[in-house]
Amino acid sequence: MSAVKTTPQASLGMDRLLVRLQIAVLAIGTAFAWFTLVGDFRRFFSACRRVFEWSGCVVTNPLPTPCFYSAPAFLAALDGYGASNRLRFF
């Protein structure tokens, strides 16, 4: 059985592919989280009209939901990851 030898060019190409794939996954997660968060807020405000109303409304308040804190987290991860790797791989 022969060992597979990798060249620096092949390794750099794989690194670029992985970085692009990770950025794409973060971008899709960011778009999904923000789309869901905006939809939840629109639905909540059409039913309740007050931001800090925790009970007495048919629709759940979006503030304690995972999309509320994951939307900015995804955006920060996308910005931080893209900024740190932008010059190195692109």
Instruction: List the secondary-structure elements in sequence, H or E.
Output: HH
**Rg computed from alpha carbons, rounded to a whole number of angstroms:** 21 Å
According to DSSP, the number of beta strands is 0
How many separate helices? Answer: 2
Helix/strand-derived class? mainly alpha
Q: Estimate the helix proportion, in percent.
A: over 70%
Shape: rod-shaped
As residue ranges, the low-confidence spans are none
β-sheet strand percentage = under 5%
Oligomeric state, counting identical vs distinct chains: single chain
Q: Name the average pLDDT.
A: 77
Main pleated sheet? none
**N- to C-terminal distance:** 36 Å
Walkthrough of the structure:
The chain is mainly α. The chain contains two helices and no strands. Helix content is 71%, strand content 0%. The chain starts with 7 loop residues before the first helix and ends with a helix. The mean pLDDT is 77.
